[in-house]
């Protein structure tokens, strides 16, 4: 049995690069940007008026002029209109180009507009005020979004703004999510008294959608021949197989034997952890990786977030993510010499600390508890008593806010 840290290191040693592809920018949400995105023009691209009002030459105001003749009205989207003398001003709207003959904008709130005139009502006017200067945010050629991050709505707005109609993104691995077990029936059917509906594969598929991975689903009966036949095909077709169930000591737990019979090299079986102890991980000579997760739903869920998602993120080149930690909010004990992934509810106190309140549930078969919980708190294997106020690594599986 290996430690959680060693299991993680074995998996991270199998990080892959799946290459790049281009996708329409509107479809890039949730993908990983593969190249730096650069500004095609300055941002803003011109001296942008930032308040509705009038544009004047500050020099005239400084000399004591407070009433200006309105020469013209300039909307956003129009070419700039210049004043001819310093006694004039341009009525101008937010988003318009500042006329080169002016240098200061006074907002309507500080003006009185008369018949063709604008009178400044305030004494405090600063040269250059209410102007968002050309190139102040980014200059042409500057990086506006660095590679190796998930494409977010804000990044999509940058892509739109710089005219990047297609974005280079990391290619995604082909993933099969495979459930096993004769007790499992289709979700849409009514189970017999000794059956249950399949749920693990849908959980895994849903979790992977965050990364735009569209996994194929497959179900295997508890039968050695059928298991081997289908896994053989999957090992050719997919980059990663995510199995659930059939990896423990039951008479019908065929998965490890089936995989080894197909030439998949076992890199470990059993991790010093709860839940998820019987986790099996291996590699096929042609490259496919096999994450055979224990079938208990909480075990599958935990191993997915603790091992598969970090492998996926590393393979997609998502930049180094900080390790998250939280403050344990109540004393707890765990006696077995296993790393314990305690289910917790997360909250933030008034000092800005992330608090983890135990929400233990009834073990790794109780997946109803996952709906209420927010995260796993990872409690070290070499300790039995955990005191409120101590800080541990945390693995959130819900967005924090
Ligand atoms: N003698 C021992 N028995 C067990 C041990 C052990 O060390 N010695 N380990 C236990 C632990 S820990 C776990 S975790 C489970 C792992 O079992 P398997 O990976 O072999 O999974 P199954 O036996 O196929 O199923 C376990 C449990 O999970 C339910 N399940 C499975 N797949 C799904 C699914 N897709 N959706 C919903 N529920 C699923 C299944 O019905 C079982 O109740 O083994 C312990 N036993
Ligand atoms: O490790 Mo099992 O995953 O406790 O139920
Ligand atoms: Mg079993």
Textual characterization of the structure:
Helices cover about 20% and strands about 30% of the residues. The chain is α/β, with parallel strands linked by helices and about 400 residues long. Helix 5 (about 225-235) crosses helix 6 (about 255-260). The two termini are about 35 Å apart. The chain binds ligand LQZAQKY5, molybdate ion and magnesium ion. Ligand LQZAQKY5 binds next to strand 13, helix 4 and helix 7. Belongs to the MoeA family.
Structural topology:
Elements: H1 4-12, E1 20-24, E2 37-38, E3 48-49, E4 53-56, H2 58-62, E5 67-74, E6 88-92, E7 104-107, E8 111-113, E9 117-120, E10 131-132, E11 143-145, H3 153-161, E12 166-170, E13 175-180, E14 184-185, E15 196-197, H4 200-208, E16 216-220, H5 224-237, E17 240-244, H6 255-261, E18 265-269, E19 273-274, E20 280-283, E21 289-293, H7 297-315, E22 325-328, E23 332-333, E24 339-348, E25 354-358, H8 368-372, E26 375-379, E27 385-386, E28 391-396
Parallel strand pairs: 5-6, 13-16, 13-17, 14-15, 17-21, 19-24, 22-25
Antiparallel strand pairs: 1-12, 2-11, 3-10, 4-6, 4-7, 5-9, 8-9, 18-20, 20-21, 22-28, 23-27, 24-25, 24-26, 26-28
Helix pairs in contact: 1-7, 4-7, 5-6
The structure holds ligand LQZAQKY5, molybdate ion and magnesium ion.
The site of ligand LQZAQKY5 has 28 residues, from strand 13, helix 4 and helix 7.
């Amino acid at each position: 049995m290996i430690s959680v840290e060693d299991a993680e290191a074995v998996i991270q040693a199998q990080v892959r690069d799946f290459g790049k592809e281009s996708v329409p920018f509107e479809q890039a949400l949730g993908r990983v940007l593969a190249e730096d995105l650069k500004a095609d023009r300055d941002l803003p691209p011109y001296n942008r008026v930032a308040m509705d009002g009038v544009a004047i030459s500050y020099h005239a105001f400084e000399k004591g002029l407070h009433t200006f003749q309105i020469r013209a009205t300039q909307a956003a989207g129009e070419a700039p209109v210049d004043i001819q003398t310093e006694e004039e001003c341009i009525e101008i709207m937010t988003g318009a180009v500042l006329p080169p003959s002016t240098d200061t904008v006074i907002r309507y709130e500080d003006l009185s507009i008369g018949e063709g005139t604008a009178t400044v009502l305030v004494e405090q006017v600063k040269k250059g005020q209410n102007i968002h200067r050309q190139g102040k945010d980014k200059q042409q050629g500057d990086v506006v979004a660095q590679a190796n991050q998930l494409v977010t709505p804000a990044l999509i707005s940058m892509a739109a703004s710089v005219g990047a109609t297609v974005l280079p993104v990391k290619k995604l691995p082909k993933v099969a999510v495979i459930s096993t077990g004769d007790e499992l029936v289709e979700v849409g059917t009514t189970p017999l008294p000794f059956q249950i509906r399949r749920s693990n594969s849908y959980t895994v598929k849903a979790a992977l959608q965050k990364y735009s991975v569209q996994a194929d689903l497959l179900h295997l009966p508890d039968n050695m021949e059928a298991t081997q036949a289908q896994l053989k095909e999957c090992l050719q077709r997919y980059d990663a197989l995510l199995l659930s169930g059939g990896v423990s000591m039951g008479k019908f737990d065929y998965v490890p034997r089936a995989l080894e019979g197909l030439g998949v090299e076992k890199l470990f079986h059993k991790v010093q952890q709860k839940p998820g102890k019987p986790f099996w991980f291996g590699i096929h000579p042609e490259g496919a990786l096999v994450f055979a997760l224990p079938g208990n739903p909480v075990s599958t869920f935990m191993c997915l977030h603790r091992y598969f998602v970090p492998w996926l993120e590393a393979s997609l080149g998502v930049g180094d993510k900080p390790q998250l930690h939280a403050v344990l909010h109540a004393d707890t004990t765990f006696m077995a010499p296993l790393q314990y992934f305690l289910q917790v509810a997360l909250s933030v106190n008034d000092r800005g600390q992330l608090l983890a309140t135990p929400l233990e549930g009834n073990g790794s078969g109780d997946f109803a508890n996952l709906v209420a919980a927010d995260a796993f708190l990872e409690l070290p294997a070499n300790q039995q008593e955990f005191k409120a106020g101590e800080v541990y690594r945390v693995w959130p599986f819900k967005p924090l806010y």
